[in-house]
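Supplementary Methods, section 5.1.

A reviewer requested that the exact input to the structure prediction be made available. We therefore reproduce it here, unchanged from the version used in the analyses.
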Amino acid sequence: MRWHTIEMSLSPSLLECAYQYLWPYAHGFSVQKEKREFLIRTFLFSSSPDYLVKKLMKYLAIQTKSIPGTFLCQTNNAFRIPSKKEFIVVPFPAAYTPPFGTPLYIQRGRAFGVGSHPCTVFCLEAIEEIFRHEPRKRIRRILDAGSGTGILSIAAAKRGAEKITAAEINPESVMEAEENLRINQAEDKVEIFTCTVTDIKGKYDLVVANLYGALLLEIVSFLVQRVDEEGWLILGGMSSTQSESVLLRYKQRGFKEVALYTDGEWCVGILRKI
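The structure derived from this sequence is encoded token-by-token as follows.
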């Protein structure tokens, strides 16, 4: 028994299919955007992943008959240990826990945000980018608007944030997020409320809103008030056709666009208040 990596280069349309298929079997996931495709690495502690790889290949071949897309899958026998800072989404409970990377333990549940959606991938990258270039003491207060499983709050906590407010309207998602926070030992850093985003008050150094385009337009007046001076705003859940109009509205309210992540279908933007 040893650690193996199943590496896949996937078109955006197949990312969630492969991720969800492997979710019951995997001991960890890492996803990165590379040019027009996603590189997904699935970590397994086993004697051999070959049988699972064969099943996965057959499954994806069937999916491509109804979902346009391409894929390339291989087993990496020369295992590369991820860096300590690399986010690894770990399905919980798991028989084996990766002894590498920064683990984000997420229950094998039903709430949104297990790391399979491109916008969740991009939001994790955006959080990493902001914490890489901003002194930790500058990001003291964070608002996670629409927290789902709590994955983005957990990621921020593991990057050093100590005061995170999370809002989620779905009570079942809140219960699941609270358990995920406990599993990740982040419950003392994150306070989660069962409420709409617009019920939250105060100013924040970073607001993460991985919602959807129409809602981001609807609550623009609210969100811009929640961001403190020179604070950061991550907007997710936008389709590529919505992103230009959504970002324009926020730029008209005193923000500048710092970065845009896109796969051609989904977009996540990093903005800063000026």
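The chain is about 30% helix and 35% strand. These observations are discussed further in the main text.
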